[in-house]
Design a protein that fits this description.
Layout: E1 3-6, H1 10-50, H2 54-100, E2 106-115, E3 118-128, E4 131-138, E5 142-147, E6 152-156, E7 162-166, H3 168-183, E8 192-198, E9 203-208, E10 214-216, H4 217-226, H5 236-249
Parallel strand pairs: 1-2, 4-8, 5-9, 8-10
Antiparallel strand pairs: 2-3, 3-4, 5-6, 6-7
Helix pairs in contact: 1-2
Length: 251
């Protein structure tokens, strides 16, 4: 069983912040709608008394603003659900990696790096004798189609809706390049791998030119384990040294 040196924290913090905002918005919802109804009633009375439409126009305006408040409330709730799904996928991926990789591997989750003017966030980093594996995990359902070299793919959901999504392969390749720069000559470039992994049980991949680039969870773990038979490039001491250095850099 591999050793987990760092767990996910950023999504948890984001979700907690959203939950606090959602709780506040729900609490103030009654105040908002009470005010809206009072202003709407005033608008109707003012219109009847003055014989003009000024009151009605004011009432419609506050109702529109309240409707915008409801839209924002739904957006916050939707974001919370999306983050919960992402957290679940990352936790499952981290658990599978720990369970199915050998004990000479180290796993660090939820890393953030800044190199020069560039920043990147890495979901999972596996360091083992055979090299380093930079993993971007996505908890996306439905059918994903496109080419591994494209900047965007299509995601067709179970309800038939289609949306464009950024290619995790391209994102992961960028993270790999930054990591190569970070490690300099400590690890050969061809032993630093980029893996875009799709963790949702209902995902289907129709991505061309995706060999050794886009994976389901089981295939990603097999990819790493298969390379255990290659000549090692890192000793146990080097693995721990690199892992500790990265963990300390995260604060």
């Amino acid at each position: 069983m591999a050793k987990i040196l760092r767990n996910e924290t950023s999504l948890q913090r984001r979700q907690e912040a959203i939950q606090r905002e959602l709780g506040f918005q729900k609490t103030t919802r009654f105040v908002v709608w009470g005010t809206v109804l009072a202003l709407a009633a005033w608008g109707v009375v003012a219109t009847i008394q003055s014989g003009t439409f000024v009151g009605i126009i004011a009432a419609v305006a506050v109702i529109v603003l309240a409707a915008g408040y409801e839209v924002r409330l739904r957006e916050i709730a939707s974001e919370s659900r999306n983050i919960e799904g992402g957290r679940r996928g990352e936790q499952q991926m981290a658990g599978r990696l720990a369970e199915q990789l050998a004990d000479d591997h180290v796993i660090l989750n939820d890393l953030e790096f800044r190199i020069a003017h560039e920043r990147c966030q890495i979901d999972h980093l596996v360091i083992g004798p055979s090299g380093i594996y930079v993993i971007e995990s996505k908890y996306w359902a439905g059918t994903l189609s496109g080419d591994a070299g494209d900047a965007q793919w299509k995601q067709r959901r179970s309800d038939g809706s289609v949306r464009r999504v950024k290619s995790p392969v391209q994102q992961c390749e960028r993270q790999r390049r930054m990591f190569i720069t970070l490690l300099a000559s400590k690890v050969p470039e061809d032993r630093i791998h980029a893996l875009a992994v799709f963790t949702h049980p209902a995902v289907q991949l129709q991505i061309s030119n995706a060999k050794d680039r886009a994976f389901l969870v089981r295939d990603a773990i097999r990819f790493i384990n298969d390379r255990c038979f290659a000549p090692p490039v890192l000793s146990p001491a080097q693995i721990l040294e690199i892992a500790d250095q990265i963990a300390r850099s995260q604060g």
